[in-house]
Amino acid sequence: GECAPIMLAAAALQRGSRHACRVPTLALLSTALSTRAATQISQRGHHHRRLLVTMSEVEKAAAAKPGGDTIFGKIIRKEIPATVVFEDDTCMAFNDVNPQAPVHILVIPKKPIAMIQDAGDEDEALLGHLMVVASKVAKQEKLDTGYRLVVNNGKDGAQSVYHLHIHILGGRQMTWPPG
C-alpha cells in the first residue's frame, strides 16, 4: 500500500522486531527514519496506526534528554502536522498523538522552555497565560464536568519531550492518586 516503501526501508534497517503483519513499531521507525516520516506514518490513519505506538511515556521519558530541538518546536514551525485547537502569538494547543484520555490536548509556549524549573521571573505572565489558555480550551472542548491539568517535569516526572507543556486530560473520570 501507500506505506510499502517506508516499511521496506525500515525492515531493511531493522530485522526481526516486527508485528505479525510485518509493520515495524514506531520506536523502530523513529530510529530508522526521520521524525517527520515516522510522524506522517503514525498519523495516516490506516489500519496499522495503533500498532505503531508502542513505547510507554515512562520509556520515552527515560530515553529523552534536555537540549536541542524537539518535536514541539517542529510543530510550532509547522514542519510537521498537528491538529491545532488553539493558537495565539505566545502559545498553541493541539491534540496529543497518543491520547491517554478521550480528550488529551497539549498546551505549549512558543518560547522554548525545556522544563518548568527553567522558567524565570520574566516568564511569569507566559506561565499564567498557559493556564488561562488551558481553561479556555477545556471549555471549548466541553469538559464541563471536570478535567485534569498535568505538567511532567524531568525523567522521574515522566517528561518525554523537553519543551514545557501542559496536558489537558478529560472526558472520563480521573483517579487519584495518579501514577
From TrEMBL:
Residue limits of the HIT domain?
71-179
Which InterPro entries has this protein been placed in? Histidine_triad_CS (IPR019808), Histidine_triad_HIT (IPR001310), HIT-like (IPR011146), HIT-like_sf (IPR036265)
Locate the active site: H165
Q: Where is this motif: Histidine triad motif?
A: 163-167
Under the GO molecular function aspect, what terms does this record hold? catalytic activity
Q: What is this protein called?
A: HIT domain-containing protein
Q: Record the organism.
A: Prymnesium polylepis
